[in-house]
């Protein structure tokens, strides 16, 4: 029976482990590009629909709200049906609202499609699940963080590319009103193409597809209990809920910044739409290496500590404290140059903390991996939704950022609360040496 990969060879496209690694981060990149494609165009969309601050806040909340539910669902679905079928279905069905938003004619219809687009954010859970069943504990933190980080960069790429695509269409003679709609069709089509590629070239785990292995009576790693049983088992584990909070405080902040950064730079610092998109995009593009760095640090720390899981917990705690302090600096930055520097520094810690969180996920409840991945992933969106409501309540972005910075520092204590018992740590140490 094929085993999990104990190393990552980026130039290898022949083994099922590395094919899954590459295709899952590409699928994730496309999904995140589609998820955040509207955000950098909001200054234009705001003018067309005459949106108020409250309506923009509602759109930002809608963009992440449904993802909470879908992430909770797709985790156990991966256990039951396998990541290949689950990802293909999400890509195909998720393309519908992505294409639909381009045809919105009112605030209400735009809000509805934006709500539907939020479902594609659940792609993250499937990506983390697929790499977790393909790679051993020796490198799973790095594999999870690298795949998630490169995929997450789709959000930053959308921030930078969508205004450029709109500008190119306008230069070609397309009106701005029609141009943003045409631009938003691109990610929808890309999702449909990727659905076909994922179905054709991936498999669920090193040994094959879950359905075929179950039918043949062949035992395999991954798959767990499946469905509701996986979710219930994950719910009973307190570490899943503590990481739910920590992920809300890092990935939730990341999503919030993606949704408000471009318009924040336009309204508070007077940047043009293109310049604001580039500034906002730089935050997301940190994910190209920062998430992987967080996972790598977690793996290296555990290796130096003889496989001790609590060393991974310590790494997460330190990164979250750095994130909170950096966010406070960003909120108080005087001038666009200092704001950009502060955003990049706190963004570095934010992405690394996301990577360090999911470097812990495979060890929380291995028999209910899908359930844990879904719960923790949903925490990120809960954090983003709460941040959206906070901004709606304060009516001021800077004040919201100040409050969020303090809350992140407090949430870092949950990382310490997720410490493992000496028995669990010893078990993982033995597995790492095997």
TrEMBL record:
InterPro entries: MFS, MFS_dom, MFS_trans_sf, NO3_transporter. Residues 20-423 form the Major facilitator superfamily (MFS) profile domain. The keyword Protein transport does not apply. Pfam families: MFS_1. The chain crosses the membrane at residues 20-42, 54-74, 86-104, 110-129, 150-172, 178-199, 240-265, 271-293, 313-331, 337-361, 368-391, 397-418. Keywords: Membrane, Nitrate assimilation, Transmembrane, Transmembrane helix. It is a multi-pass membrane protein. It is found in: Membrane. Coiled coil: none annotated. It comes from the Bacteria. Belongs to the major facilitator superfamily. Nitrate/nitrite porter (TC 2.A.1.8) family. This is MFS transporter.
């Amino acid at each position: 029976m094929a085993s999990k990969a104990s190393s990552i060879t980026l130039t290898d496209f022949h083994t099922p482990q590395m094919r899954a690694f590459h295709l899952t981060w590409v699928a994730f990149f496309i999904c995140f590009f589609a998820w955040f494609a509207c955000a950098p165009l909001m200054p234009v969309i705001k003018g067309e629909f005459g949106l108020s601050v409250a309506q923009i806040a509602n759109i930002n909340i809608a963009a992440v709200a449904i993802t909470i539910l879908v992430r909770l669902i797709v985790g156990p679905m991966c256990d039951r049906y396998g990541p290949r079928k689950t990802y293909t279905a999400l890509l195909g069905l998720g393309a519908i609202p992505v294409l639909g938003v381009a045809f919105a004619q009112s605030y209400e219809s735009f809000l509805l499609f934006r709500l539907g687009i939020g479902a594609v954010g659940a792609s993250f859970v499937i990506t983390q699940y697929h790499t977790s069943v393909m790679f051993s504990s020796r490198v799973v933190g790095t594999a999870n963080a690298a795949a998630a980080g490169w995929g997450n960069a789709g959000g930053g790429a959308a921030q930078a590319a969508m205004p450029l695509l709109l500008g190119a269409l306008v230069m070609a003679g397309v009106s701005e009103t029609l141009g943003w709609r045409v631009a938003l069709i691109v990610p929808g089509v890309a999702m449909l193409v990727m659905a076909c590629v994922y179905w054709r070239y991936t498999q669920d785990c090193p040994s094959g597809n879950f359905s075929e292995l179950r039918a043949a009576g062949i035992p395999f790693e991954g798959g767990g209990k499946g469905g509701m049983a996986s979710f219930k088992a994950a719910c009973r584990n307190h570490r899943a809920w503590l990481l739910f909070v920590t992920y809300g405080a890092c990935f939730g902040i990341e999503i919030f910044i993606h949704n408000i950064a471009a318009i924040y730079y336009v309204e508070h610092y007077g940047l043009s739409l293109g310049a604001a998109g580039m500034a906002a995009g730089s935050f997301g593009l940190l994910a190209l290496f920062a998430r992987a760095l967080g996972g790598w640090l977690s793996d290296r720390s555990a290796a130096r500590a003889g496989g001790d899981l609590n060393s991974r917990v310590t790494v997460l705690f330190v990164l979250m404290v750095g994130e909170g302090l950096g966010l406070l600096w960003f909120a108080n930055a005087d001038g666009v140059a200092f704001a950009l520097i502060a955003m990049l520094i706190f963004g570095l810690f934010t992405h690394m903390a996301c990577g360090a969180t999911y470097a812990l996920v495979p060890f929380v409840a291995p028999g209910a991996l899908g359930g844990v991945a879904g719960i923790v992933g949903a925490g990120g969106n809960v954090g983003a939704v709460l941040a959206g409501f906070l901004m709606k309540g304060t009516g001021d972005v800077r004040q919201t950022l100040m409050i969020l910075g303090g809350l992140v520092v407090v949430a870092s204590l949950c990382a310490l609360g997720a410490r493992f018992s000496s028995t669990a740590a010893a078990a993982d140490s033995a597995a790492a040496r095997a």
